[in-house]
TrEMBL record, chain A:
InterPro entries: HMA_dom (IPR006121), HMA_dom_sf (IPR036163). The keyword Metal-binding applies. This is Copper chaperone CopZ. Residues 7-73 form the HMA domain. PROSITE patterns: HMA_2. GO terms for molecular function: metal ion binding. Gene3D superfamilies: 3.30.70.100.
Automatic annotation (TrEMBL), chain B:
This is Cadmium-translocating P-type ATPase. The lineage of its organism: Bacteria, Bacillati, Actinomycetota, Actinomycetes, Micrococcales. Residues 650-666 have a biased composition (Basic and acidic residues). It comes from Pseudoclavibacter endophyticus. It is found in: Cell membrane. The chain crosses the membrane at residues 12-32, 52-78, 85-106, 112-130, 259-277, 283-309, 598-617. Belongs to the cation transport ATPase (P-type) (TC 3.A.3) family. Type IB subfamily. The keyword Ribonucleoprotein does not apply. Its main location: membrane.
């Protein structure tokens, strides 16, 4: 198990309107190859993702969140 | 403009189209006596029994439009429900989907269309308004600087703020955002620190001053040495703290979460059982609709997000919902005297000579020499005055041994110098004929802090320093009382006389003086035993145990201290005393909004349930009331985003210059 390329990123999302969004996004993003874990915070509308940067890019993550129906932008800090 | 279009077509297109189809359907059915309402096909739905809403036994053009409206509005809901089911989540979308599909199966096209249409429109409104409750955080994130001007290879270059390297020099021109946390190395300027401290008045910056990323220059020109960039800036720490605080579950919220986990499946079971027993499909479907837990599950998070967000915009960081709940019950506030009630920059006011062989300058010289290696705040005024009078200490300071609560013992050129109170003299067996104690007493009666100076077992004099009362200290105490705090207590290591002079001037209720650090802790515990929920305000190391023991630990002027931002239950970013009563008031308002919201949600469900069994509440009315309750809950929370009277926050336009500037160039 190599964690050398594990990257942690935070996406700030828009349009979270009910706590059931959380599980939906966690499933949708969690299924992606290269994503190690994902945690969605409902109140602050944040999505924390640990992923393998060699297998998947931040843009792919944003796209996956969009597929679940939410707009998200990677945060700078 | 572009964003507006996207918003309209994104969130609102579904309810708009669906609504138009509903109108069209009614028009066809009613206009010209239904002439245009052509028959399309014979009845294909199941008989609903007593509650059937469908008039005829044929499927008409009007029905077709109504069905289309339901499909348009319901498609997204069903898709979401399926996605949620795949993720093992039984959510509100599923309840609505089952209800709508059920309504179609029994031919209640109007009900299906109404339920899905109302749900879609409610949802679009919820999304928009919920984002509003998060607006405070969004503003904080938006404050983050995007570009920086650095000097590289002797040239000014504009680069993204995240690419500034630690230790680089950045230039801050008039009107620009400070791109990094750093220290001014040259130049002067005025910086608007509203985004960090919530203070409206720009702060003068000179060489050596600290500046924060995300603050705005209002004049002057600064060269700043970068000491913190990107995620390592005060602004980033604030944003993270606010986010964590908003996500931290209050006790009440944890209960609601557990409750809603089994609530939704329970509603489905209840609807099924009710349907089977009564044989009334419509009743079962209606139960599904009104059992939606919407208002209940968001009632607390929206209040917390809005309350904590509002506080952050005013330079008040609250650790989370649980601390909000505790803060709302604060009945006593303990404040450290120095730096909170007073300026914390004591000045030397008196030098009393008690040894006729010396002169006053000698007393000052010995005192300064003894204090040279001391860290104590009272050392500074003595040293400053001595330096100004040309009798400042030279060379390397001797060893200084602090005696907590009593003073210091210092070794100066092989001679033992004591500076402190009468108990210190007693401890070191220094004789006093009473004159030192008397002089000290007289000075203390004026609210000054006397320090007896003794050299080699002989008292030579007394020096006194006094601290200025902060201008807004009396106002803070008054506002704390207004915010419902019963007792404001002063804890200080100073003598009772000094403490009383300050206490009388500020309106403090109770004074605990001459305290050692551990005594402060005991004072806090004692107040807790009296049944008080106590907030302790402090800044110094010697307050740490008391801060940890108090129900709420409050740090003042936390912007400059990463540790304070991370650890305090409530961190007041600026140094404005009036933020403290404001924080308590805001906590109280937030908690009452939480309670109101839970009440609204529960009462709605109970009323609807009663309405169903009493008859009269149909699926569409149920959905209307339910969606309305969700919006009321959100609107109620949004009241927190408005500033209460007496708030310390600056006018909004002050901090949206950036957006304005962008619009001009777009």
């Amino acid at each position: 198990m190599s964690t050398s390329t594990t990257t942690r990123t935070v996406l700030r999302a828009e349009g979270f309107s009910c706590p059931s969004c959380v599980a939906k996004i966690e499933k949708q993003v969690g299924h992606l190859k290269g994503v190690e874990n994902v945690k969605v915070h409902f109140a602050s509308a944040r999505i924390e993702i640990n992923y393998d940067a060699e297998r998947i890019s931040a843009d792919d993550l944003v796209a996956a969140v969009a597929k679940a129906g939410y707009k998200a932008v990677p945060s700078t800090f | 403009m572009n964003r507006l279009q996207k918003w309209v077509y994104g969130n609102w297109s579904v309810p708009i189209v669906s609504g138009m189809l509903i109108i069209l359907s009614f028009a066809i059915q009613w206009l010209a006596g239904g002439v245009a309402d052509l028959t399309v096909s014979p009845q294909w739905w199941l008989e609903a029994g007593a509650h059937a809403t469908h008039a005829g036994a044929v499927f008409t053009l009007g029905d077709g439009f109504m069905l289309a409206a339901a499909v348009v509005a319901g498609y997204g809901i069903v898709a979401k429900a399926v996605r949620a089911l795949i993720a093992n989540v039984i959510g509100i979308d599923l309840l609505v989907s089952v209800a709508a599909i059920g309504a179609v199966i029994i031919g209640n096209f109007w009900e299906a269309a109404a339920v899905t249409f109302l749900f879609a429109i409610g949802h679009a409104l919820e999304a928009a308004t919920l984002n509003k409750t998060r607006s405070a955080l969004a503003e904080l994130v938006a404050v983050a600087p995007d570009s920086a001007i650095v000097v590289r290879n002797g040239e000014q270059q504009e680069i993204p703020a995240g690419q500034v390297r630690m230790g680089e020099i950045v230039l801050v021109k008039n009107g620009a955002k400070v791109p990094v946390d750093g220290q001014v190395v040259s130049g002067t300027g005025a910086i608007d620190e509203a985004s960090i401290t919530g203070e409206a008045i720009p702060v003068e910056k000179i060489k050596g001053s600290q500046v924060f990323a995300g603050t705005v220059s209002r004049g002057g020109f600064l060269q700043v040495l970068a000491t913190g960039i990107g995620a390592d800036t005060t602004l980033a720490r604030i944003v993270h703290r606010v986010e964590e605080a908003q996500d931290a579950k209050a006790k009440t919220q944890a209960f609601i979460d557990r409750f809603s986990r089994w609530y939704t499946p329970a509603v489905m079971v209840l609807a099924l059982v009710a349907g089977l027993i009564s044989g009334d499909v419509v009743l079962a479907l209606t139960l599904l609709v009104i059992g939606c837990p919407g208002a209940l599950v968001i009632s607390i998070p929206v209040a917390i997000v809005a309350g904590i967000g509002r506080a952050a915009r005013n330079g008040i960081l609250i650790k989370g919902g649980e601390f909000l709940e505790t803060s709302a019950r604060i009945s006593a506030v303990a404040v450290d005297k120095t730096g909170t009630l007073t300026e914390g920059r004591p000045q030397l006011t008196d030098i009393v000579l008690l040894d006729s062989a010396l002169d006053r300058t000698e007393v000052l010289r010995w005192a300064a020499a003894a204090e040279a290696g001391s860290e104590h705040p009272l050392a500074r005024p003595i040293l400053e005055t001595a330096q100004a009078d040309g009798v400042g200490p030279h060379g390397i300071p001797g060893t200084v041994t602090p005696v907590p609560g009593k003073g210091i013992v210092s070794d100066v050129d092989g001679r033992q110098v004591l500076i402190g109170n009468p108990p210190l003299l007693e401890q070191y067996n220094v004789p006093d004929d009473g004159s030192a104690a008397q002089a000290a007493k007289a000075l203390a009666a004026d609210g000054k802090t006397p320090m007896i100076v003794a050299v080699d077992d002989k008292v030579i004099g007394v020096v006194a320093v006094a601290d200025q009362i902060r201008q807004d200290a009396p106002e803070m105490v008054a506002r704390l009382h207004q915010a419902g705090v019963e007792k404001v207590v002063m804890l200080t290591g100073d003598t009772r006389l000094v403490a009383e002079a300050i206490g009388t001037a500020t309106g403090i209720d109770e004074i605990h003086a001459s305290l050692l650090p551990e005594d402060k802790l005991d004072a806090v515990v004692q107040l807790q035993q009296e049944g008080h929920i106590i907030a302790m305000v402090g800044d110094g190391v010697n307050d740490a145990p008391a801060l940890a023991t108090a129900n709420i630990g409050v740090a003042m002027g936390a912007a400059g201290s990463a540790v304070a931002v991370e650890t305090a239950d409530i961190a007041l970013m600026g140094d404005n005393l009036l933020k403290l009563p404001e924080a308590i008031g805001l906590a109280k308002r937030t908690v009452s909004v939480m309670r109101q919201n839970i009440a609204i949600a529960l009462i709605t469900v109970v009323l609807l349930l009663a309405g169903i069994f009493a008859g009269g509440v149909t699926m569409s009315i149920g959905m209307l009331v339910h969606e309305a309750s969700v919006l009321v809950v959100i609107a109620n929370a949004m009241r927190l985003l408005r500033n209460a009277q007496g708030s310390t926050e600056m006018p909004k336009r002050e901090r949206t210059t950036e957006k304005g500037a962008k619009q001009v160039t777009a």
